[in-house]
Amino acid sequence: MAEKEGSTLTVVLAGSVNLLIAILKLVAGLITGSAAMLSEAAHSVADTFTEILLLTALRVSRKPADRAHPFGYGKARYFWSLLAAVSIFASGSMFALYEGFSTIFGAAGEQTSPLVAYLVLAGAFALESVSWAQALRQVRRDAADQHRTFRAQLRHGDDPTATTVFYEDSAALCGLLLAFAGVGLHQLTGAAVWDGVASVAIGVLLACVAFLLGRANAALLIGRQAPPDLVYGIRDTLAAAREVDAVVDLQTMLIGTDSVLVCARVDFDDTITAGELERVCVRLAGELQAKFNDVTEVFIEPVPRSDEDLRAAVLARYGEEPRV
C-alpha cells in the first residue's frame, strides 16, 4: 500500500508541476520569441501528458485478476509507461528539434523581454526541483526495499512510474539550463542561432530519455526474469528441501510490480509416493511465497534430471550448463 501511495503521489505532483510550468513557459516563449522557451513549453506539455499516461498505468495495473487475465493486469503498467516514453519523443523531442532547426536555418528572430524568460526559467527550475526531489526519494525508497543500489534500481526496477518521473524531471532540469544558456547567449551576441542550438540540444536530450525509458519498458513488457538474487534464493530454497534431489530448471518472469511468476522443474526423491509429492509441491509453493514477498505464482513440475530432451532444451535456452 505504501508503494502504491508513493508512486501515485510522485506522479500527481509531477503532473501538477508540469502543467503549471508549461503555461508559464508558453507565455514567456510567445513574449520573448525564444525557440528554446517554446521548446521547453512543448517539453512540459509532453511531460504533463506523460503523467496522465502514468496515472492510467497505475489505475489499470491494480485491477484484480479475472478469467480473461488470470495473472492480473500488472503488465499494463509497462504498456502505458511505454506509451509515455513514446509521447516524450513524439510531442516533446520532435517539436524541439523542429523549432531549433527552423531558428538556425530560417530567418533570424528578434529577441524581446529576455528578463521574462529568465524569471520564468528560474521559477520553473524551483518548481521542477520539488517534483524531482519527490521522484528521487521514491526511487531511493524502492531501491532500499529491494536491497539495490540507486543505479541498479534505475536499470532493473520493476516499477516504471517513479523511474519515468525521475528521468523526465532530470531531463527537465537539464533542459531549463540549456534554455537559459540559449536565451543568454542570444542576448549577449545578438545571434539567434544560439537559441536554435539550445532548442536542438533539448530535442536530443528528450530523444535520449525516451530511448532509455522505451528500452526499459519494452524489456519488462516482453517478459524479463526476476533479479538474480531472487532467482538464486528460490533455487536454494527448493534445493534445500529434503524431498528434492535436484532443481533441473528454473524460470521466472516479472508479471507486474512486485509480482513474480515462478516455474520450476524439479527431480524429486523417487521413494516418495504420488500423494506425498502433491503435498510437497503445495508446501514448497507456500514456502516460496512466504519467504519472498514478490513471488505471487508458483508452478512446480516433477521431472527426471536424466531426461536428455529436457536437458537439451535447458542448454539451448541458457547456452551453457545452467546455474539455477
Overall pLDDT score? 85
Largest beta sheet, briefly?
Answer: 3 strands, mixed
Strand order of the largest sheet: 1-2-3
- According to CATH, what is the class of the largest domain? Mainly Alpha
CATH arch. level architecture of the largest domain: Up-down Bundle
Tally of distinct domains: 2
Proportion of residues in β-strands = 5-15%
Using only C-alpha atoms, the radius of gyration works out to 25 Å
Oligomer: single chain
Write the CATH fold name of the largest domain: Alpha-lytic protease prodomain-like
CATH homology-level superfamily of the largest domain:
Cation efflux protein transmembrane domain
Order of helices and strands: HHHHHHHHEEHEH
Summarize the structure.
The chain has 324 residues and is mainly alpha-helical. It folds into two domains: 2-222, Up-down Bundle (Alpha-lytic protease prodomain-like), CATH 1.20.1510; 228-318, Alpha-Beta Plaits (2-Layer Sandwich), CATH 3.30.70. The chain has helices spanning 2-32, 35-61, 76-105, 114-145, 150-156, 160-189, 193-222, 228-239, 274-291, 308-318; strands at 244-256, 259-268, 295-302.
What's the structural blueprint in terms of helices and strands?
Layout: H1 2-32, H2 35-61, H3 76-105, H4 114-145, H5 150-156, H6 160-189, H7 193-222, H8 228-239, E1 244-256, E2 259-268, H9 274-291, E3 295-302, H10 308-318
Helix pairs in contact: 1-2, 1-4, 1-6, 2-3, 2-6, 2-7, 3-7, 4-5, 4-6, 6-7
Describe the structure.
InterPro entries: Cation_efflux (IPR002524), Cation_efflux_CTD_sf (IPR036837), Cation_efflux_TM (IPR058533), Cation_efflux_TMD_sf (IPR027469), SLC30A9 (IPR040177). It comes from Actinokineospora auranticolor. Pfam families: Cation_efflux. GO terms for molecular function: monoatomic cation transmembrane transporter activity. Keywords: Membrane, Transmembrane, Transmembrane helix, Transport. The longest helix has 32 residues, at 114-145. The two termini are 32 Å apart. Helices cover 70% and strands 10% of the residues. It has 10 helices and 3 strands; from the N terminus they run ααααααααββαβα. By secondary structure, the protein is mainly alpha-helical. Helix 1 runs antiparallel to helix 2 (35-61), helix 1 packs parallel to helix 6 and helix 2 packs antiparallel against helix 3 (76-105). It has 2 domains: 2-222, Alpha-lytic protease prodomain-like (Up-down Bundle), CATH 1.20.1510; 228-318, Cation efflux protein, cytoplasmic domain (Alpha-Beta Plaits, 2-Layer Sandwich), CATH 3.30.70.1350. The mean pLDDT is 85. Helix 9 (274-291) links the parallel strand 2 (259-268) and strand 3 (295-302). It has a 3-stranded mixed β-sheet.
